[in-house]
């Protein structure tokens, strides 16, 4: 047995002496496909509503609030899931967002929002991070579903028409500037400009 392990270890240390370059190339190609497929499968699994609400911090706080909004239940039956608003659709932006979200895992591990009271204490900070992200990307996640070009101004209030046709159209403002608290309850904003 010891000789067999030693023999395979020797082959692994110097594979080109025992295996053809073509076989190594095909093996590396197959290993790359398996890695890429596994990585993308894990990435997509981490974008499901079931994954997002798997921890009680999200399920018991923000997910409960979402269920009472038009983004969850409406006459058309179209539902925005967590990833629709919190994960960009472009692959490179999605990877960058997932790297940012790794800090949220630390919050889970160290229990910084593991009770309702702790969550409420950090709610403004958490919301501000999201609002800043939306502001920086021109509310891209909103615009994935809500197209300015498809807005029917005849079915909007005068105030909405005024805002959408001037500020939104000119790029002066973006969706999140006016629509904070549309899917989740606003944090305590006392003392905030």
N-to-C SSE series?
Answer: HHHHHHHHHH
Radius of gyration: 24 Å
Relative strand content = under 5%
CATH class of the largest domain: Mainly Alpha
According to CATH, what is the topology of the largest domain?
Answer: Multiheme cytochrome fold
Biggest beta sheet summary: none
Assign an overall shape.
Answer: elongated
How many structural domains are formed by the residues?
2
**Which oligomeric state applies?**
single chain
Gross CATH architecture of the largest domain: Orthogonal Bundle
Number of helices: 10
Q: What share of residues is helical? A: 55-70%
Instruction: Return the structural class.
Output: mainly alpha
Q: Show unreliable segments.
A: none
> What number is the mean pLDDT?
86
């Amino acid at each position: 047995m010891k000789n067999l392990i030693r023999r395979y270890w020797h082959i692994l240390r110097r594979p080109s002496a025992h295996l053809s370059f073509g076989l190594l190339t095909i093996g590396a190609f197959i290993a790359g496909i398996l890695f890429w497929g596994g990585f993308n499968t894990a990435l997509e699994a981490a974008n499901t509503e079931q994954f997002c609400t798997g921890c009680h911090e999200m399920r018991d706080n923000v997910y409960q609030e979402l269920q009472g909004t038009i983004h969850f239940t409406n006459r058309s039956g179209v539902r925005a899931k967590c990833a629709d608003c919190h994960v960009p659709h472009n692959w490179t932006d999605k990877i960058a967002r997932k790297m940012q979200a790794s800090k949220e895992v630390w919050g889970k591990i160290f229990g910084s929002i593991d009770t309702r009271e702790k969550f409420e204490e950090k709610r403004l900070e958490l919301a501000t991070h999201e609002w800043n992200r939306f502001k920086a990307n021109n509310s891209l996640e909103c615009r994935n579903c809500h197209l300015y070009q498809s807005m029917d101004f005849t079915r909007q209030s005068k105030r909405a028409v005024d805002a959408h046709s001037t500020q939104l159209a000119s790029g002066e403002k973006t969706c999140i500037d006016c629509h904070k608290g549309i899917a989740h309850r606003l944090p305590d904003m006392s003392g905030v400009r």
